[in-house]
C-alpha cells in the first residue's frame, strides 16, 4: 500500500496530511510522523483535496469536510471517531456526551482514550471535546491549538 503525503502551512504551524489510495489516514501536527514517512509519495488526489478543504476551513469558509477516510483502529475507536462528527461546527461536547451517544454511558474514560488516538485531527473534530465541567482537556496538537480552533469556529458561527 502506497502512502501519500503533503504538508500545509496553517496559522497553527505545519499540518501533515497522509492518505492511501482509499482515503485519509492521518492529519496532524506531528512532524515526527512526517519524518517517518519521508519515503512516502508526494501527493495524490485525496491529499490534494484535503489540503484544499483544510485551507478553506482555516479561512472560515468550510464547516464540513467531504473526504474519503481510511482510518485504522478498533471497532470501538472507529465508532467514537464517527461520533465526533456529530458535534456541530462551533459547538462542543463532553466525553460523557459521546459515551451516551454510542450507548455506553459508563465508557467515559474509554471514549477519552479513543479520542486521544484520533488519527485525523480537525476533520474528525476531536478538538470539540471538552471536560464535563466545560474546561479544555488534552489535545494531541496542544491546548493552545485546541483553544484557537474552537475560537475560529465560534467566530464564524456568530457571523451567520
In short:
The mean pLDDT is 89.
Determine the strand fraction and express it as a percent band: 5-15%
- Structural class, by secondary structure, is alpha+beta
Cα gyration radius (Å): 15 Å
Question: Which architecture of the largest domain does the CATH hierarchy give at level 2?
Answer: Orthogonal Bundle
> Main sheet, how many strands, which sense, barrel?
3 strands, antiparallel
Which geometry do the CA atoms define? globular
Which key features would you list for this structure?
160 residues, three-stranded antiparallel sheet, 6 helices
Task: Please provide a written account of the structure.
This protein is α+β, with helices and mostly antiparallel strands. It folds into two domains: 4-58, no CATH class; 75-157, Arc Repressor Mutant, subunit A (Orthogonal Bundle). Helices cover 38% and strands 14% of the residues. It has six helices and five strands. It has helices spanning 31-36, 45-58, 75-84, 95-101, 108-116, 143-157; strands at residues 4-10, 13-19, 24-28, 93-94, 129-130. The strands form two sheets. A three-stranded antiparallel sheet has the order 1-2-3. The longest helix is centred in the C-terminal third of the chain and has 15 residues, at 143-157. The radius of gyration is 15 Å and the shape is globular. The chain starts with a strand and ends with a helix. The relative contact order is 0.16.
Q: Could you give the topology of this structure?
A:
Blueprint: E1 4-10, E2 13-19, E3 24-28, H1 31-36, H2 45-58, H3 75-84, E4 93-94, H4 95-101, H5 108-116, E5 129-130, H6 143-157
Parallel strand pairs: 4-5
Antiparallel strand pairs: 1-2, 2-3
Helix pairs in contact: 4-5
